[in-house]
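Retry 2 of 3 after timeout on previous attempt. Resubmitting structure tokens to design endpoint.
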């Protein structure tokens, strides 16, 4: 591992590129010197209000320059920082606070009410004013003798992912985990101080670590895309052009919308020189189109679950076509990636992908306590390493690249996020009036959609309403169907394959907007 600290990336950039633009949010622009000074003032304010190294701080701030400042300041204060989405239901945010053991929340006036509600009865209702319009809310005090996971005493980064128990899982990444990726990615993609990175990913999404920290590693400028543009692909293309964005890291679904509905299918924005994607498979025909438009501009595929951020990469050949096999490339330097069969041995066939090395997380935070799911595994080179079993299935090519082929559990990728359908089912089963539930990814004419089936004394409107109360929008199914009974397979269990393949019921879906 590099041993690099995330706050050190910003400090070094401020020394090396003090007058270069570091952060742009609309008409507001900070140079690296100005950003470093603002972060320093905010970090000092945190310390003066009792924040100690190792404390766990949530950042519940709308995606903005203030959120970026809060993240950097928390890291500089030695805290474990957890970005949170203000659009999440309060009940879900509250569960995240408990899971990660967050003792503080950073917020702004626009989200103070949600912060207090999420913190619940444990919170001191007084919000202490800090620099830049940011407030500090105490959710609970860390007891004097309360132990911290040893690697987290000097801070770290928490991102949440969907969990099968109905509770979001807090993924604890060390400074070194994220910084190793950021420094490598900046070098691999040739980032330079003149680059302008189009930052469109939610700060709770692991893609954002490139936008914030790889930018700092190279002295590039992070340009925050207005959230409202996401629904209008043509406006996104105009924004990329007007802002002279040179590097974009996004999920394939965004690229597809820009190509098909944004006008980028005719020509890419002229300043865009490097395109990166991750989070889900790229539809082959659309990728072929993008490569043709990109010509000699590099297009990278990054792969890795949140627990490893990015562990493999591929500079996609410009000559690649949809008729060829797609891979996610080979291991990032510092990582080892291999495929293991059910006996725990490396296999040339299909098996579970395991990752060891510099980007592998410290573990999950469950009720504030660190649980490490990694295990000691002997890789094909004979070396035993601490490895994370990803749950992704795949195989190795003769050249050592990885080909993905599904999951071994109930997780799916949706809008770039990993979603555990068991978590959605857990929420449904806690809803009054629902006796049984099943959530499936549809095949056939509704392929690509997620449907929730429920049995009980509820309406389809009730089902979707309950889900919207407890889940972020990206996890809410496209359709809810109430059934008198579930079809069963030969083993007497719910026939999920039949539910996934069946056509729509004759009754129309409830007319609701998101």
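Retry 2 succeeded. Sequence:
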């Amino acid at each position: 591992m590099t041993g690099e600290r995330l706050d050190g990336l910003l400090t070094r950039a401020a020394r090396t590129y003090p007058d270069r633009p570091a952060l742009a949010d609309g008409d507001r622009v900070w140079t690296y010197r100005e950003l470093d000074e603002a972060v320093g003032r905010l970090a000092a304010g945190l310390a003066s209000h009792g924040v100690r190294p190792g404390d766990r701080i949530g950042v519940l701030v709308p995606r903005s320059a203030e959120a970026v400042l809060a993240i950097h300041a928390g890291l500089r204060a030695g805290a474990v920082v957890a970005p949170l989405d203000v659009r999440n239901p309060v009940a879900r945010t509250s569960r995240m606070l408990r899971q990660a053991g967050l003792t503080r929340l950073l917020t702004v006036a626009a989200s103070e009410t949600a912060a207090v509600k999420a913190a619940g009865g444990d919170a001191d209702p007084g919000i202490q004013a800090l620099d830049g319009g940011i407030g500090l809310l105490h959710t609970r005090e860390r007891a004097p003798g309360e132990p911290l996971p040893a690697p987290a005493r000097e801070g770290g980064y928490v991102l949440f992912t969907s969990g099968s128990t109905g509770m979001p899982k807090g993924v604890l990444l060390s400074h070194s985990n994220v910084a190793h990726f950021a420094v490598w990615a900046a070098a691999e993609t040739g980032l330079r101080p003149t680059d302008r990175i189009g930052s469109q990913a939610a700060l709770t999404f692991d893609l954002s670590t490139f936008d914030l920290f790889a930018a700092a590693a190279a002295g590039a400028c992070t340009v925050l895309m207005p959230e409202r543009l996401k629904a209008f692909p043509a406006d996104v293309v105009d924004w990329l052009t007007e802002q002279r964005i040179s590097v974009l890291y996004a999920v394939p679904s965004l690229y597809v919308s820009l190509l098909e509905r944004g006008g980028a299918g005719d020509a890419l924005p002229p300043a865009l020189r490097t395109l990166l994607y991750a989070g889900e498979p790229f539809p082959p025909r659309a990728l072929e189109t993008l490569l043709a438009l990109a010509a000699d501009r590099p297009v990278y595929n990054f792969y890795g679950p949140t627990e490893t951020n990015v562990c493999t990469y591929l500079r996609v050949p410009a000559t690649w076509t949809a008729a060829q096999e797609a891979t996610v490339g080979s291991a990032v330097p510092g990582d080892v990636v291999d495929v293991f069969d059910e006996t725990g041995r490396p296999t040339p066939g299909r098996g579970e992908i395991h990752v060891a090395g510099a980007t592998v997380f410290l573990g999950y935070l469950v009720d504030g306590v660190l649980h490490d799911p990694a295990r000691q595994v002997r890789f094909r080179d004979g070396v035993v390493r601490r490895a994370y079993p990803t749950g992704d299935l795949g195989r190795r090519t003769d050249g050592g690249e990885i080909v993905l082929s599904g999951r071994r559990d109930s997780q799916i990728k949706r809008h770039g996020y990993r979603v555990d359908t068991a978590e959605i089912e857990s929420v449904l089963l806690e809803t009054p009036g629902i006796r049984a539930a099943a959530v499936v990814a549809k095949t056939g004419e509704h392929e690509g959609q997620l449907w929730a089936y429920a049995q009980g004394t509820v309406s389809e409107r009730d089902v979707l309403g309950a889900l919207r109360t407890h889940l972020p929008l990206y996890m809410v199914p496209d359709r809810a169907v109430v059934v008198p009974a579930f079809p069963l397979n030969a083993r007497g269990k719910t026939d999920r394959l039949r539910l996934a393949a069946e056509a729509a019921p004759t009754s129309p879906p409830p007319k609701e907007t998101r």
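Attempt log closed. The chain has three domains: 6-224, 327-407, 411-501.
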